[in-house]
Amino acid sequence: MEYIPAKHLLQRNRSTEWFGTDHTMNLYRGCCHGCIYCDSRSACYQDPEFDRVKAKADALRILRDDLARKARPALIGMGSMSDPYNPFERELLLTRHALELIDAYQCGVAVATKSDLIVRDADLYGMIREHSPVICKVTVTTADDALAAKLEPGAPPPSRRLEAVRRLSEAGIFTGVLLMPVLPFVEDSEENVLAVTEAAARAGAKFVCAAFGVTMREGQREYFLGQLDRAFPGQGLGERYRKRYGYRYQCSSPRARELWEGFSRRCRELGLLYEMGHIVSAATRPYADRQLTFFD
Ligand code: SF4
Question: Whose CA is nearest to atom 3 of ligand 1?
């Protein structure tokens, strides 16, 4: 493992809209899950070797110092730029020890991952939820393991991720599914969206948070479109994206509106939360008696 220097671990979020988090934390840089659409490959992040995982040197000491300095309690987000449960975490235990610190400093956590390794830390999430909000978000963009193997070749298959949702939910941890991105012309069928939604409900998820489209920008765009053509030869998907979206950043599915209607209706029928505000308030409401920055 290569270790890279870091000054701070906690980055204050400008807005708390994204799952209500006050700070974002990345213990690792880069990710080997290989999702072909990953935004963290964009040139603006200046990591030409994104697919190789690096760990932040002295991360736990830095995190402890950051936690001691920051206003607490706070909700800390993990998993925005790299997956905290990449395969190296199994041995390195950085995420696990960071959760111990978050617990010791009485903070909450909102974590996003594509790995079922998250289940290993169910005991710590259980301890944190005794005093602060915990939101576990497991990303599933398709329920089809074979399709996911083309789009997210280094990540555990969705069947294992959904099993992780089931196990975390059974442990009483507020857990749901991120159904994003939903790739135009590849995953944006009602069948796919409803299959993920229904599988999430069967696994005991509290919510499904969806975005019907993908983002593209410099550095990531050409990689993504090249990988799409490699994964689906002869379908002209790269050209189709170029024609429709050009250099646009937000690339919504042409079917986004009808997908949202069918998705939101099914979520209501299944008792799943699907609006960000409702998800965050359901996760944080039980802690409303504390003077939290969660409610900024
Ligand atoms: S798991 Fe997340 S960070 Fe890792 S490659 Fe996939 S989208 Fe990127």
Answer: 82
Supply the pLDDT for residue 295. Answer: 44
Between the CA of 289 and the centroid of ligand 1 the distance, in Å, is 36
Rounded CA gap, 219 and 206, in Å? Answer: 35
Structure tokens at 76: 């800390």
Q: What ligand 1 atom has the least distance to the C-alpha of 37?
A: 7
Model pLDDT, residue 17:
57
Distance in Å, CA 288 to ligand 1 centroid: 33
Enter the DSSP assignment of 293: G
Q: Bridge partners of 77? A: 24, 110
Q: Could you tell me the distance, in angstroms and rounded to a whole number, from the CA of residue 89 to the centre of ligand 1?
A: 14
- Ligand 1 centroid to Cα of residue 83, in Å, is 6
DSSP code of 161? H
Mean pLDDT across the chain: 95
CATH topology of domain 2-290: pyruvate-formate lyase- activating enzyme (3.80.30)
- What confidence tens digit (pLDDT) does each residue in 6-56 have? 999 999 887 655 778 899 999 999 999 999 999 999 999 999 999 999 999
Calculated CA dihedral for residues 166, 168, 172, 177, nearest 10 degrees: -70
Its pTM stands at 0.95
Per-residue model confidence as pLDDT tens digits over 49-106: 999 999 999 999 999 999 998 877 899 999 989 999 999 999 999 999 999 999 999 9
Is any atom of ligand 1 closer than 6 Å to the C-beta of 33?
A: yes
**Per-domain residue ranges for the chain?**
2-290
Task: Tell me how many degrees the CA angle 9-14-16 measures, rounded to the nearest 5.
Answer: 95
Give yes or no for residue 40 CB within 6 A of ligand 1: yes
Cβ–ligand 1 distance for 82 under 6 Å, the answer yes
